[in-house]
Amino acid sequence: MLRAILLAFGLCLCVPVAQAQTLQDLLQADLEAIADPSRRTVGEVLDVLVASGLPEVPVFLERWREKLVFQRAADGLFFYAVETDDGYSLIDITTGAEVGTVGPRDVTALLPNAGVRGVIGTALIEFQLMDPDLVRRTAAVDAIARSPEPEMLEPLRGAIPDESDPDLLTRKIRLERLLSARFETDSATRVAALQTLATDMSVDVRAVLNTVLSTDMRAGPALPDDANIAGLVTPGSNALSREAAYQMLVEAELAPALIPVDAIKAALIAAVTDGQVGGVPVATLDTDAARAAAYETLAATGAVPPLVTDTDIDASLAAHAFWLEYREADAAVTDAAALALASVGTRVAAYQVADLTLDALSLASIYFLAAIGLAITFGVMGVINMAHGEFIMMGAYTGYVVQLFIPDYTISLIVALPLAFAVTFGAGVSMERLVIRHLYHRPLETLLATFGISIALQQLAKNIFGTQARRRARSPRPTGSAGHGPIMTCWGSAISASRSSCWR
């Protein structure tokens, strides 16, 4: 028994231990597909690399896509390379260690074309979505959002459960719904994704919905039973002109083509015999009607194809059907997309009404403030203040400057509102003490003096702040959170109001 155990142990020592494959081994196994890839062959290579699970694969794919992989001519091995004065410094693709230098003729750069780089990029995104680095995961999501492809749907779904960043998780879930709405093969899943988009008014959502609802104009003897039809089209309407409808029938070989004028003339010239065409003297063929009659004479003999008359066109149009057909064959999907798009359109319209209403109230409040200020000033003091609009502008710029130093929306408003009143009050008191007090009961002089002050204040604002309307400062947000652009506030409206001729 002991001898048997020792014999078995000895045999095990004699059997060579199989070595694990390295990245270089995988590449050498399909040398030609790596060195000279195509869209047809690169997919198989990528499947092998991804299935290997080697940690060096993502880096290799990145550098292969960026044309930073080289092949040594002596032995066909692949390396990363850094250009030096004498040639290239080779870096091992597995260990990342420098292995020596070679001349420029000793290595060949791998230069995959745009199509191959696109396929590599798709495979690379699968790694990046699960990368520990938040920046790389975010970049992968951005890449999918920029160029969505059906192959990206499953990797994106697989990356959702393990996502630790809440903001990026929200983006992944939303992006997964967008991709599902476009590329999912299961009808129920696709309909569910479209239903979740009914409350999202983003431009990319509307683009997806419009893509699902894209249509083509069709014509035929009758409506097909198996088509997903969006609606019927009447020839001669705004959607389809009479001429375009008949041309569709001609292209579908459902109606004879119209005879061009040049073809009529050429047929008549070819049929001239003894100065006549079909018994009609050539000298009389000086009008379109005469030439058409001569051509009809030739057509009656079968020498040329007959003309297509308006009556023929109307009969052909009446005998055929015209319709808009969805490119998406599943009616349940297009119905869900249509409902979602209608819901989004309703919400957008409601927000537009609210936005216009608030803008109108904001502008009206500024005009009301200016008007009531002018009326009170004239009624109490008997002074026509032509610089009244510029004082509104002064308060607006005070709020703008405060927000430059205090970006937080709430705190900046709390500070800006009383400070704007204080600054404007101080400027008003200064103008009254320095100018207006010396011109009481002299309306023309006060009008001219305040008009001059108005011009001076406008020019001062232009010199300091420029001539463009100013926007609110952006409030700081946590990294990775969904931010919104700067919001135009009443400051811009007030600035514009100060330059309006309504004060004049």
From the alpha-carbon coordinates, what is the Rg to the nearest angstrom?
39 Å
Distance between the termini: 117 Å
Total number of helices: 20
Strand order of the largest sheet: 4-3-2-1-5
Poorly predicted runs are: 1-19, 474-504
Shape: flat
Residue share in β-strands? 5-15%
Number of strands: 10
Largest sheet: 5 strands, antiparallel
- The helical percent reads 55-70%
Structural class: alpha+beta
Overall mean pLDDT stands at 83
Order of helices and strands: HHHHHEEEEEHHHHHHEEHHEEHHEHHHHH
Give an overview of the whole structure:
There is one protein chain. This protein has helices at 2-14, 23-29, 31-35, 39-52, 57-65, 114-129, 134-146, 153-159, 166-183, 187-196, 203-212, 242-251, 261-270, 288-300, 310-318, 331-381, 388-405, 409-434, 443-465, 490-498, and strands at 69-72, 78-83, 88-92, 98-102, 107-109, 215-220, 229-232, 276-277, 280-281, 321-326. The chain is of the alpha+beta class and 504 residues long. Among the domains are: 23-116, no CATH class; 216-326, no CATH class; 382-503, no CATH class. A hairpin with a 4-residue loop joins strand 2 (78-83) and strand 3. Helix 4 (39-52) packs parallel to helix 6 and helix 9 (166-183) packs across helix 10 (187-196). The model is unreliable at 1-19 and 474-504 (pLDDT under 50).
